[in-house]
Amino acid sequence: MNITIDHILAGISVGGQYALIAIGYTMVYGILRLINFAHGDVFMASGLIIVYLTTAMPLQYAIPIVLLLTVMLGFLIERAAYKPLRAAPRMSVMISAIGVSYLIQNLALYITGGLPQTYPAIPWISDSITIFGAVTKRVTIITPILTAILIVLLVALIRYTKIGMAMRAVSKDFETSQLMGIKINRVISTTFVIGSLLAAVGSLLYFTSYQSVVPTSGSMPGLKAFVAAVFGGIGSIPGAVIGAFIIGICENLIKSSTDFSIFSDAFTFALLIVVLCVRPTGLFGEKSIDKV
Amino acid sequence: MKKIVALVLAALMLVTVFAACGETKSDEKVIKIGVFEPASGANGAGGKQETLGIKYANDVCPTVEINGETYKVELVPVDNQSADDKAPTAAAELVGKKVSVVLGSYGSGVSIAASDTFAQAGIPAIGVTCTNPKVTEGNTHYFRICFLDPFQGTVLANYAYNELGYRTAYTLAETGNEYDQGLVHYFTEAFTKLGGKVENASFVKDTSDFNTLLTNAVNSKADVIFAPTSTQYAQLIIEQAAAKGVKATLMAGDTWDSNVILAAAKGKDVDVQVTTFYQEGGNAEFDAGFKAWIEGDSQNLTDNGGDSNIAAVSAMGYDAYFVALEAIKKANSTKPADIMTALWDVEYTGVTGEIKFDDVNGDADRVSAYIKKVNTETGLWDFVKEQGVN
Known about the structure:
Oligomer: heterodimer
Number of helices of chain B: 13
Number of domains of chain A: 1
Strand content of chain B: 15-25%
Order of helices and strands of chain A: HHHHEEEHHHHEHHH
Strand order of the largest sheet of chain A: 1-4
CATH class of the largest domain in chain B: Alpha Beta
Shape of chain B: globular
Number of helices of chain A: 11
Order of helices and strands of chain B: HEHEEHEHEEHEHEHEHEHEHHHHEEEE
Distance between the termini of chain A: 39 Å
Number of domains of chain B: 2
Largest sheet of chain B: 7 strands, mixed
Number of strands of chain B: 15
CATH superfamily of the largest domain in chain B: Response regulator
Distance between the termini of chain B: 77 Å
Largest sheet of chain A: 2 strands, antiparallel
CATH architecture of the largest domain in chain B: 3-Layer(aba) Sandwich
CATH class of chain A: Mainly Alpha
CATH topology of chain A: ABC transporter involved in vitamin B12 uptake, BtuC
Strand order of the largest sheet of chain B: 8-7-9-10-11-14-15
């Protein structure tokens, strides 16, 4: 094992990207008790959208538009695939989510023709810099900072605004809050909008580090973010963030050893199993969780 | 209402099933050649370029004489999706469509996976650029027109050790990928035999973060990073190596001879060198014809990666098609079994050199490989030298 500052930096950066995706999983779960399997694919779609947008317009327009389009995609998925199933058993919604995931992947396969697409280099953040003797892209440093800022904003939104209060109420008790006059559909849509926005930001950061988008690009980061959400206690935002950083860092430390590097993914999923066995509610989870 | 919608949907599905069965019939005599190549997945880019070479050849020479009758050559392409588990299904589709001979595939793993399907159907296959020895080893139906990994790995090791004076190497390969692992194995064997030091590393499918592995490579003081991976990973490796300021030479086999690599390395501070089958300029007539053909069709242009640079695999695809035609002419029959027998004795001089199969495995005798490097300013290949094993 030869751990250097490089490995730690890579770990923190990857952790930040997982965190942004994990929030989308955990918020939707907190409110709908649904694991939104399509979330990783929304993340990938966001990457593809910008690849195609930059062929038509400069980057400074493409970035705001991609954020908007990703939010719309998340919103539309909820309206088309989950809302009609509001009264259906939870399992049906879950299956619908898996269906959406495959639909997006296959659409992406059709559009790209199966070829890896090169993600455009975003100036400034993709420049190389040197920190403590380690050469890396500027995005590595920006990721954790941006993640922290976004999370503070999100927590403030949930704590201090009216819609945030509504979200908390809905996550406590779905039916009662409906009876109390909370517009449930608005709350759910807002949740999806926030989740997708963060996924879009995550995708900007992730694909700037790894500049290749293929239809399955979203599945691995999506799965790992999901593990992070479970590890931190699904439904809990700070939990998901801490879980994501722990997974990102551990994964890169394992990769630093030549003998064990190929087990880094296995480690993530082994961790999922251990957490589910030993502490099903995760680090910060609610006590009586409704498992699906 | 819902029931009606469900019924209509179900009816539509049935219609599509039957629509797929429709076949056109005509009096024209046709011989079918299967094109077993990836059009998607990790090797999609390379597979498409190889297919382009085959299609161009078909365009140049669309008919063949059998028993004094003119047969139209029909290409039957299937997409093996660069996946070992999908390859046998794709192969079975070709068998079902009654092809007489199969060309492909790009990527050794899928060829090995599909080999049994072709063997059982008695259909001969001609490997175009699958370099792993296991493709043709111990069977009589799989032939190949390119060089092999023991050769390619040794050539690269010799070149790195003798010509470039490198002593330490770091290798990167995808676990479970026959092509990567095979080439790394032969490279390591040859490099250590010469007296060099090698450290091996592997990564799992769908990895996108190579930062840590590249850091390990730098820490091991490697002069050369040998990474004969699929182009999907190559793009990421080059990009991340450039961002990290890795000084070691990135070296790989024929897979990296692709526009994807050129696009990834253009304008970056990296040294990328590869071995390949053909160098643009080797045959002026083919170069000019192929370029014009690519530029004449927007779909072809897209499949070639957006420009008309000639990939070595396209030239190999072109030659493979004519080798197949030679065999059909020699067999004077459309029966797969006759073509298989005829293939052993085929001798053909193509744009990539002389092609003749050995008597044991049906491999072409190739004595040298082309080495070229990326010119990061122009984004084109610079020819370095022709290198043999010695």
